Amino acid sequence: MQIVWQDLRYGARMLMKKPGFTFAICCLITVCAFSQTTNLRRPTAKSGSVYQLPPNFKAQAAKYMQERVRVTGFSGAILVAHRGQPVFRQSYGLANHEFSIPNTPATKFRVGSAGKQFTSAAILWLEQRGKLKLTDTIDKYLPEWPKAWSEVTIHHLLSHTAGLPRLTTQALLDVSALSQSSPKLFRKLGDLLKAGEELQPLDSKPGEKWSYSNVSYILLSMIIEKVSEKTYCDFVSQELFHPLGMTNTGCDDPGTILSQRASGYTRVNETLTNASYVDMRFVMGAGSIYSTLDDLLVWNRALDAHRLLSDAAIAKLFTPVKNEYAYGWWSQTKFNRKVEWHGGNVSGFVSQLTRYPEEQLFIVVLSNVWSAADRSQVRAIANELSAMAFGGGYELPRKHKEIKLEPAIYDGYVGKYQGSETFALVREGERLMMQIPPGQSVFEIVPESETQFFWKGREYFLTFVKDEMGKVTHVLIRNEGETVRWAKSK
Q: Is the per-residue pLDDT at 31 higher than 90?
């Protein structure tokens, strides 16, 4: 059960990722007022774009992924597409270990929270047909909506700014329901709450703060069902997937015999075990979708061509509201380029979808093995393939082996480090601990040489740089394929 709901704690983990981390969640960007988004136009890349992939990209990607499989045991499928055409499309490992069935580019993987984009697109599809407005308050569609939450709008749910109180959510408590052959699924707000939870005040005024919320996207699914008079799965299948020819994409249903569906696995101490069984229908629009490399490429082409959504709707989909989050997509800058991406983690699976719209570069990483290390490496693969595509620096995967150092050596590294944020290193006995920010998120880093350290089970590597006097001046942190320099405070 813990693994199943990793996705539900995804946003909370991301808030702790600060120095050197891929996600610059801690910095709130300027709020784009919702009333202004309707007139926004998002620039689209032209077919004559000057950006070109390096001529040896395919060979580099093949070598890189070969080392990934050898060193980290990556299992899944990879797609890199430029201008809508695949340039690297490969699969690795096994879709099913009991029968030794290999993964293929046509294998179906759960995409977890990366599927939130389909929910947000469905809402925008309904809006542009006049079925709802993003400024509508939720009580217009869900009559049980608490009066204390009356100011929450559809826009707030889409952007994770509703300020909803922390809810236990029945599915989190009723573990047995997730494994029943005929469970009672969520159909109304009351199914999500314990008695009395509807009396809680909001944690913050709607629109004021950002907090990742899977419950928000489950509620959006209920609104879609209310407005369309169809189940969430029927609606996204009939109105989004089928018109585009995405015949290998849908909602994961344990009762359906689905050809080429990957089995999910959990990695524990380098050993694979079957992932815990769950009924994915419970999470609805928060993460129930499965798909393939090719179908996700079709979807990306549709976004670029504005096939289902208008210019105004596409602008809303990708315009950040708070914390660089838009509607089901992060909208940030990586490698000095605009990037739109989302990851997903769900029982036995990890995913990452990454778009560089101006370069028309699209990268998909799908894995049917879950662990903290696998979650981290999926993000690293997406970032390092990006760096490779832009002719930047990247490192081939290698084994990192811990060595023993005299604890007194650690004292030279102790202190505060500053960049866009501040973090601290402290020595606790014979361990060197990292605090991000100081005192909030704490983990141990271990040495592989006197100046190189790493965080076990993560794609997180530190290289300390010293002056001619042997004093540390700064540290280079390579986290999940991105490197950032942090200066040591005097």
A: no
